[in-house]
Amino acid sequence: MNEAPPMGTILVLDGDTVPALDIIRSLGRQGVPVDIASHQANSISGYSRYTHKAHLYPHPLESTDQFLTWLEQQLASNRYRLIIPATERTLVPIARHFQSHPRADCITMPALDALETVLDKAKTGQLAIDCDVPQPASWTISQLSELNDLEDQLHYPVVVKPGRSISDNEVRVPLTVRYAHSGEELRKLGHELLGHVHLVLQEYFTGIGLGMELISDKGEILYAFQHQRIHEMPLTGGGSSYRKSVEIDPELLEASRRLIARLSWHGVAMVEFKKNPQTGEFILIEINGRFWGSLPLATAAGADFPYQLYQLYTSGTVSALQPYRREVYCRKLASDLAWLEAVIRKDADTRLVTIPSTGSALKDWLKVFSLKHYFDVQSLGDIKPGLVDIGHIVRSYVERITGLFRERAFRKKIIKRSHHQALAQKIASANNILFLCYGNINRSAIAHVLADEMIGTDGLTFRSAGFHPEENRPADSRMVAIASDHGISMNSFRSTTLTQELANWADLIFVMEATHISRLETLSAQVAEKAYLLGGLTIGEEAVEIADPYNQPEPVYRSTYQQVARCIEGMKTLIPADQAAHPERAL
Fold it and tell me: Which stretches within 352-463 are classed as H helix?
């Protein structure tokens, strides 16, 4: 029989997340007994000295019904005074299922209609309009065909926001904001995302990220805290890995008041804005109707939202609130190390963001020596979770480094076996040749078309394919134009998705990158053994990989075309001239 928790125990869900750990620490410091639960065994919160007991539940995204049944059992046991969902993945199914439950007041959740409004980006946009809160020009689409009517209105880059951050399909899938720099790229993202959720398209707005965190009682804000994002991961915009507490901006607070009052919001929330420091203009980004990722900064600065929420739900009031400290910094170690690596590697789209210098990035790390600097997970008052987190970080880097060595050795092996002489023997015994890349709209597509045009023997059959799940797509318009300049028509070409049947059909497979052979190994070792680099067909040169030109400048497309064309010319030399269908055609 399970041991009963102490009287007045709180159950915190999503124990594998940083916000859950911060909630546990906040309540534990106040002497409130806490249990945690997660779908992951050995979650980070389970190592906290404030955790009384850790529980395991079914995955709320993959096994939603089973998760809800588990929670019903916890409510029926009357073990817990309060249950706190820490993330959207648990809050959403709970709010939809338990609104009318006899013990619904034991769960910290807002009214369902208010939650559904902030979950849906389109509904949030309408709320902003109703409350006269600025937002960028926006359009909502549910079908790809709707883009046709928007072509003249869109100015790139376009922010592509999934209507919900977690889809409402049978299998709930987490989705993230993306960016499109052209109509073609926007359609590609539409193909990818519209099967999960409707999309909100917005004009790109340049500014700094500001979060207005608050707790409210039926639409009345009781306390507010503001932070500024300093580092975001990825660099083009995402969760903050490093941020600081700042003065409340009266304009942003007033905008938040109007939104929260209209929602009659009850509990915690973060209203996220972007503000241009040069013009003073600001826009609403979104409303997070639950605890936010940067919660440890708020508690470190003295804005103890978890304990305030506990008071609101257990006593109906929040005790006297002290002003929070300004210029307090907080860093999520794992994410900010990834941010630093991205800066050093210049791994960001410079059309969207200016990448800081390595020197300035390292200078930011000097803040760790400040008495006003904190970490999200590492804490002298609760040491073990921080050590476990560091262990995870070290292990991930060791795995990456060893993986890089393995990948390098594999690439070297593939390059060595793809030399011209070996390929001559393979072609001599082949009847069916398959060209393969990721999308089958650029590299393998032009290889296929050129091989048909320049070689096209009775004894050889050429086909092409890609790993991309959607087939029957036309070739990339930029590659089509370049091929046309060389007298090659790709107008009738349509992409094919690789299947086991097609892989078995091929006697010889030419791939563009060594990693493509790794992917073929998932079909079978026998299929992977038939694959070689197309870049090994260039006479007198070591085999090379041919990079994907997709969405790159035109000179990159032209260079790719020439690389592939030289390879097909090399293949042509391995076939007797009297068999060539078009020996007179020149590159």
Answer: 358-364, 383-417, 420-428, 443-454
The secondary structure of 281-345, three-state, reads CEEEEEEECCCCCCHHHHHHCCCCHHHHHHHHHHHCCCCCCCCCCCCCEEECHHHHHHHHHHHHC
**Residue 483's pLDDT band (cuts 50, 70, 90):** very high
Q: Which residues, other chains included, contact 406 with Cβ-Cβ below 8 Å and sequence gap of 6+?
A: none
Whether residue 210 is found in the same domain as residue 276:
yes
Choose among 90, 91, 84, 54: nearest CA to 388. Answer: 54
**Same domain (yes/no): 78, 141:** no
Over residues 418-468, the pLDDT tens digits come to 988 889 888 888 899 999 999 999 999 999 999 999 887 667 899 999 999
* Average pLDDT value for residue range 96-117: 94
Pairing assessment for the beta strands 199-203 and 138-141 based on DSSP bridges? antiparallel
Q: What is the CATH number of the domain that holds 38?
A: 3.40.50.20
Q: Is the pLDDT of residue 169 over 80?
A: no
Among 158, 185, 204, residue at a domain's last position: 204
Asked whether residue 214 is domain-assigned, the answer is: yes
The CATH number linked to 309 is 3.30.470.20
Residues 259 and 357 in one domain: yes
Rounded distance between C-alpha atoms, residue 84 and residue 221, angstroms:
20
At residue 577 the predicted structure's pLDDT band, cuts being 50, 70 and 90, is low
> Do 217 and 269 contact (CB within 8 A), yes or no?
no
Is the domain of 199 the same as that of 298?
Answer: no
Mean of pLDDT values over 361-384: 94
Q: Tell me: do 365 and 442 sit in the same domain.
A: no
Cα separation, 58 vs 271, whole angstroms: 30
pLDDT at 582: 44
Distance CA 130, CA 244 (A): 31
pLDDT of residue 458: 65
What residue numbers bound the domain in which 175 lies? 137-204
Q: Give yes or no for residue 86 having a pLDDT over 70.
A: yes
Instruction: Report yes or no on 95 lying in a domain.
Output: yes
> How would residue 339 be classed by pLDDT, with cut points 50, 70 and 90?
very high
Is 395 domain-assigned? no
Whether 587 shows a pLDDT value over 80: the answer reads no
Please tell me whether residues 96 and 211 are part of one structural domain: no
Give the residues across from 45 on adjacent strands. Answer: none
Q: Looking at beta carbons, which pairs linking 145-153 to residues 24 or more positions away fall under 8 Å?
A: 147/183, 147/186, 147/187, 147/190, 150/201, 151/183
Total domains, the chain: 4
CA distance 395 to 223: 40
Higher pLDDT, 189 or 532: 532
Residues 440 and 496 placed together within one structural domain of the fold: yes
Beta strand pairing status for 267-275 and 208-217? antiparallel
Residue 212, burial from CB neighbour count under 10 angstroms (0-12, 13-18, 19+): buried
Per-residue pLDDT at 369: 92
- Token readout for 206 is 């340049």
CA distance 123 to 95: 18
With a threshold of 0.85, does the pTM exceed it? no
Least confident of 175-179, 253-257, 463-467: 175-179
Residues 6+ apart with CB under 8 A from 434: 462, 463, 464, 465, 502, 503, 505, 506, 508, 509, 510
Task: Say whether both 217 and 197 belong to one domain.
Answer: no
Q: Is residue 570 part of a domain?
A: yes
